[in-house]
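ok new one. same drill as before - C-alpha cells go in, u give me an amino acid for every spot. 776 of them this time. try not to just spam alanines like last time pls lmao
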C-alpha cells in the first residue's frame, strides 16, 4: 500500500491492474458500460475514482488510447489535484513518446503529491479499483504451450533448432503458470485484502483531516462492500479460519455503522439514501447466508439488535429504493436462501424489466438462471412433478445463454453444463445403471466442460473433472469417467464432495468391468477402496451394490485382494466375508495363508497402448524411469502414471515402472541399471518411506551414480514432507506436498535436457528474478 520509505505511489498502473494481456476488448467494453452506468448514480466523492478507472479501461481497448487521454485531461481540469489521474496521464504520454507533455503533468503532480487530503483520496481511489471484479480470460494455457512444443519436437531434422524453440515455449508456459494462482478464489481474496487495507488507510486519513461526515460515510460503505466480497470469496474457498470470522464480523459492523449513521436522518436523498438501502439489504442477506456463524455475534449488541429485526431491514431497503437494481437482486438472493424460488424469480424479473441491458445487469440474468435451475432441482428432489420442470430448465438454459454471450466466465460454463445435463433427464437411482432420456444434452454438457478446460488453466479446478466424471457414464465412457474423478479427487485432496465423487467412481468401475472383464482394473479399484477407507469414507455401500448387482466382480476383487495385497486389505476382505457373501472354501484358506506368510508381490498392471517416442540426438525407449519405495507403488501406478502416460492425446510420455516393466527373476539393481540406460530422465519419489529405508536409499544412491555417469537429468518429486538426501540437495525439486504440480512435471519432461539449452536453469533464473523483484 505504501512504499517502504513512507512515500505514496499514485496511479492505477502501479497497483497490479495491468490488464492489457488479460482481457479482450469485448470484456473491457462490458466493464466500461457498467462503470459508465455506475457513474450516473455515484456521489461526487467517488466520481473521480470511477472516471479514472473508465479511462484506464479505455487505454487497454483497441483504438482507445486517444479517448483515455482525453478523458484523463478532462478529469484533471475538473479535479486538478487528483493524483491517480495525473500519474496515469503521465504514463499514457510516456507510452506515446510525448516526454514534454509528461514532464508538464509531472510538475503538476509534484506540487500536490505531499498534500495529505490528495493522498487519502488517491489511496481510496486505488482501493475502489482493486474491488472491481475483472473476468479472467487466459488466451494461452500451459497445456497449449506444451502441445506446441511437443509438435515442434516431433517434426523436422534440425534437432538443435527444434529444442531451442520447444524450450522457449516451455519457459513461456512456466511464466503463465506463475501468473495464475492455484485457484481464482485465492486471487480474488488477495485483491480484496489489498483493497481493504487501502480503504482503512484512506478513511483514517480523512478522519484525521476532519473531512465531511458524508464523504467518510461514502467510503465506509465501500469498505463494508469490499469486506463482504472478501467474505464471499473466502466462503467459496472453504476458509473457516479466525481471519474469516473476524472479517465477517467487521462486515456486519461496517453495514451496522452505516445504518445507524443514516437511518435517523430526515429527508435523506441521493446516494446516501441508496447506501442506507444497500446496507440494510446487504446486512440481512449476509447474515441469512451465514447463520452458522451466529454464535460469533453474541457480544456485538448493535449487530444483535439488527439481527432480531431482519424483516424490518429488508422492508426498509425496499421502501427506500423500490426500483433499485441492486436491492431487487439482493432481495431475490435472500428469497432463494429461504427456498422461495418463485418470489425470487419475480424480483429478478422486475430488475431485468427496469434494466434489460445484459451487460450492465448481468448479475440479474445469472441470478434468475440459478433460481430456475434450483427450483427445478428442488422439485425433482421432492419428486413433485406437478410443476413444469422441463419448462423451468428451458428458461434456465435461455438465461444461461444470455450470461454466456455477455460474460463467458468459468462459472457460466459450469452452470450451463449442469443445466444441459439435467435436461437430459438422467436416471437418478444410484443402484441402477446409467441411463438418460436424451443423450444429446449430455454430449452438449461434455462439450461445454471441455471448452472450459481449454479456456482455463488445466488441472486447477476439481469441479470440472468431477462433472466430467459424473456425465461420462451416461454415454458409456466409463474409463474417461474413472480418470476424471481420480483427477478431481487428487486436486481437492479427496475432501470436497468426496462421498458423491467416490460413489460415481465406484459405479463407473463396476460398469466398466462388467463390459470388459479387465482384471487389471481390479488392482486400480483396490487402491481406490484402500484410499477411501484410509480417509474414513463409507466404502461398504459400494461393496453392497457390487454384491447385489455385480457378484462376479466382487468375487474377482476378493481374489485380487488376497493374491496381491492380503495384509493391506485385511479389514475389507474380513468385512465382506462376514457379510455372508458366498466364496469358495479354498479362497478363505488362501487368505489365511497369505496373512501368515505376508505379501510382498507387485500388482500386475497393463500399460497403455504404444505411443510415439521422440527421436533426439540419442534414442530412448522410455521418457523417464521412476524410482520409488514399495509402499508408494500404488500412488505411482494409479496416480502418477495416468497423469503422464494418459494425460492427452497430443502429449503423452512413456515411462518405465518397476511393477510393470521389470522382468521377473532379474536382480533389481540390474533391472534399474538397464532402465536408466533406456530412459531419458530419472524421477525419484521422495517420502519418509524411502528416506528411512536403508535398502531403498542404497538403490537411490546407485541410481544417482549411474545417472551422473550417463549425464541423466534427475527430477526429485517430494510427495510427502521428508528429509531431502544430500545427493539431491542441489537438484530443483517438484513439491507435491502443497499441491499436485503436474504441469511443472510435464514441462520438465517435455524438452530434452541433454541439450545445451537447460530448461531448469531458465526456470531457476525466472524464480530468482521474481524473488529479487519481490524484495524491491
Amino acid at each position: 500500500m505504501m512504499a517502504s520509505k513512507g512515500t505514496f505511489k499514485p496511479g492505477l498502473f502501479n497497483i497490479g491492474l495491468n490488464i492489457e494481456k488479460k482481457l479482450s476488448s469485448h470484456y473491457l467494453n462490458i466493464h466500461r458500460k457498467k462503470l459508465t452506468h455506475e457513474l450516473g448514480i455515484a456521489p461526487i466523492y467517488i466520481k473521480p475514482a470511477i472516471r479514472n478507472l473508465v479511462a484506464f479501461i479505455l487505454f487497454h481497448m483497441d483504438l482507445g488510447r486517444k479517448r483515455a487521454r482525453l478523458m484523463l485531461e478532462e478529469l484533471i481540469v475538473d479535479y486538478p489535484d487528483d493524483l491517480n489521474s495525473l500519474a496515469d496521464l503521465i504514463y499514457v504520454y510516456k507510452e506515446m513518446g510525448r516526454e514534454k507533455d509528461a514532464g508538464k503533468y509531472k510538475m503538476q503532480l509534484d506540487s500536490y503529491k505531499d498534500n495529505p487530503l490528495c493522498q487519502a483520496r488517491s489511496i481510496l481511489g486505488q482501493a475502489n479499483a482493486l474491488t472491481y471484479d475483472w473476468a479472467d480470460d487466459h488466451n494461452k494455457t500451459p497445456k497449449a504451450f506444451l502441445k506446441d512444443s511437443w509438435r515442434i519436437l516431433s517434426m523436422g531434422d534440425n534437432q538443435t533448432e527444434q529444442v531451442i524453440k520447444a524450450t522457449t515455449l516451455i519457459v513461456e508456459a512456466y511464466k503463465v503458470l506463475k501468473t495464475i494462482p492455484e485457484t481464482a478464489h485465492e486471487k480474488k481474496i488477495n485483491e480484496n485484502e489489498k483493497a481493504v487495507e487501502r480503504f482503512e488507510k484512506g478513511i483514517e486519513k480523512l478522519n484525521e483531516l476532519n473531512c465531511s461526515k458524508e464523504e467518510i460515510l461514502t467510503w465506509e460503505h465501500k469498505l463494508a462492500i469490499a469486506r463482504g466480497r472478501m467474505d464471499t470469496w473466502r466462503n467459496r474457498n472453504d476458509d473457516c479460519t479466525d481471519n474469516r470470522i473476524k472479517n465477517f464480523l467487521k462486515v456486519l459492523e461496517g453495514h451496522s455503522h452505516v445504518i445507524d449513521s443514516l437511518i435517523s436522518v430526515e429527508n435523506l436523498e441521493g446516494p446516501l439514501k441508496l447506501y442506507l438501502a444497500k446496507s440494510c439489504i446487504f446486512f440481512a442477506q449476509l447474515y441469512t447466508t451465514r447463520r452458522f456463524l451466529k454464535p460469533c455475534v453474541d457480544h456485538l449488541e448493535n449487530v444483535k439488535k439488527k439481527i432480531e429485526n431482519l424483516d424490518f431491514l429488508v422492508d426498509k431497503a425496499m421502501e427506500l429504493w423500490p426500483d433499485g437494481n441492486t436491492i431487487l437482486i439482493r432481495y431475490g438472493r435472500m428469497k432463494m436462501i429461504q427456498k422461495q424460488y418463485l418470489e425470487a424469480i419475480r424480483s429478478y424479473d422486475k430488475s431485468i424489466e427496469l434494466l434489460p441491458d445484459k451487460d450492465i445487469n448481468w448479475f440479474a440474468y445469472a441470478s434468475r438462471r440459478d433460481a430456475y435451475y434450483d427450483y427445478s432441482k428442488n422439485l425433482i428432489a421432492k419428486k413433485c412433478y406437478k410443476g413444469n420442470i422441463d419448462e423451468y430448465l428451458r428458461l434456465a438454459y435461455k438465461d444461461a445463454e444470455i450470461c454466456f454471450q455477455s460474460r463467458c466466465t468459468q462459472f457460466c460454463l459450469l452452470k450451463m453444463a449442469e443445466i444441459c445435463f439435467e435436461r437430459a433427464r438422467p436416471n437418478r437411482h444410484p443402484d441402477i445403471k446409467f441411463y438418460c432420456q436424451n443423450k444429446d444434452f449430455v454430449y452438449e454438457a461434455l462439450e461445454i466442460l471441455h471448452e472450459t478446460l481449454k479456456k482455463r488453466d488445466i488441472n486447477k479446478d476439481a469441479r470440472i473433472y468431477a462433472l466430467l466424471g459424473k456425465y461420462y457414464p451416461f454415454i458409456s465412457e466409463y474409463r474417461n469417467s474413472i480418470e476424471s474423478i481420480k483427477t478431481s479427487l487428487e486436486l481437492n485432496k479427496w475432501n470436497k464432495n468426496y462421498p458423491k465423487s467416490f460413489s460415481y467412481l465406484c459405479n463407473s468401475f463396476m460398469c466398466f468391468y462388467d463390459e470388459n472383464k479387465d482384471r487389471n482394473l481390479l488392482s486400480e479399484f483396490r487402491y481406490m477402496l484402500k484410499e477411501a477407507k484410509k480417509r474414513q469414507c463409507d466404502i461398504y455401500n459400494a461393496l453392497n451394490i457390487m454384491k447385489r448387482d455385480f457378484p462376479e466382480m466382487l468375487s474377482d476383487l476378493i481374489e485380487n485382494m488376497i493374491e496381491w495385497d492380503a495384509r493391506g486389505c485385511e479389514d475389507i476382505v474380513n468385512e465382506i466375508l462376514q457379510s455372508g457373501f458366498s466364496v469358495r472354501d479354498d479362497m478363505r484358506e488362501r487368505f489365511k495363508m497369505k496373512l501368515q506368510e505376508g505379501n510382498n508381490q507387485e500388482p500386475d498392471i497393463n500399460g497403455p497402448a504404444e505411443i510415439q517416442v521422440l527421436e533426439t540426438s540419442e534414442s530412448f525407449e522410455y521418457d523417464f524411469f521412476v524410482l520409488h519405495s514399495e509402499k508408494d507403488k500404488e500412488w505411482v501406478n494409479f496416480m502418477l502414471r495416468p497423469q503422464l502416460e494418459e494425460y492427452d492425446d497430443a502429449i503423452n510420455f512413456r515411462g518405465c515402472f518397476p511393477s510393470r516393466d521389470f522382468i521377473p527373476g532379474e536382480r533389481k539393481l540390474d533391472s534399474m541399471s538397464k532402465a536408466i540406460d533406456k530412459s531419458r530422465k530419472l524421477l525419484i519419489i521422495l517420502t519418509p518411506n524411502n528416506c528411512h529405508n536403508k535398502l531403498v536409499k542404497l538403490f537411490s544412491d546407485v541410481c544417482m551414480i549411474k545417472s551422473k555417469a550417463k549425464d541423466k537429468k534427475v527430477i526429485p518429486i517430494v510427495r510427502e514432507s521428508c528429509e531431502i538426501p544430500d545427493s539431491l540437495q542441489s537438484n530443483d525439486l517438484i513439491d507435491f506436498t502443497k499441491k499436485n504440480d503436474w504441469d511443472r512435471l510435464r514441462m520438465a519432461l517435455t524438452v530434452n535436457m541433454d541439450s545445451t539449452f537447460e530448461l531448469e536453469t531458465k526456470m531457476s533464473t525466472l524464480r530468482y528474478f521474481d524473488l529479487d523483484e519481490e524484495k524491491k
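Residues 1-5, 599-617, 753-760, 762-776 have pLDDT under 50 and may be disordered. and btw The CA atoms of residues 469 and 481 lie 4 Å apart.
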